[in-house]
């Protein structure tokens, strides 16, 4: 797991500034120092109990140590992975990581360049397993060994509609980058390529948005709240 972002970044919303034009925007996020009898639970972090917890985490994880939160997430992770090609420093990766965290993906895979812009991730990358593959072959070898079905997500003439496709429980949803889209080697290796229906004039939607829609399709089929 990549741990390069600091707790301070997280508390500050990764550089976000409160907007005084939005009602309540200056309200502090999170909780202050613990009040009442000191809790026994060893998932709690004494520093957060003493000083408060302003991290970008859901309320049930308040005051938990970082390790305890990741261990809890790891015990519940879903069967899908996401992958995105990064040959020219794709600016959508932060969004993909944040959404993968929200929908509890097993892992995010970055294919190509290792560096990516963390700003859009809002420090969610600290809680998300991220694996780098320098080449498509390396990525495909991992998918084969892991027994995960590779599904390309792009608007090709032979793509099938994501809206009606039964997504396998264990799969990796692969996204291309702005401009070139999904690369030929991924397209050839994919079990299927899936398209998201569009109705307007644009040729495509943003890759981060496409990733959110595809992950939510998996959630609707396998993990939707009953
Ligand atoms: C902006 S698109 C790439 C440009 C696109 N090849 C074109 O001709 O305009 C970047 C990535 O977003 C995803 N994407 C965008 N729109 C999509 C759609 N309608 N269906 C499926 N994937 C889409 C795909 O993964 C694609 O590789």
From TrEMBL:
Residue span of region Disordered: 1-40
Hydrolase keyword on record: no
Coiled coil: none
Molecular-function annotations in GO: RNA binding; RNA methyltransferase activity
SUPFAM superfamilies in the cross-refs: alpha/beta knot
GO biological process, one term: RNA processing
Matches recorded under Gene3D superfamilies: 3.40.1280.10
Domain tRNA/rRNA methyltransferase SpoU type stretches: 80-216
CDD domains to which the protein is assigned, alphabetical: SpoU-like (cd18096)
Keyword field: Methyltransferase, Transferase
Protein name per UniProt: RNA methyltransferase
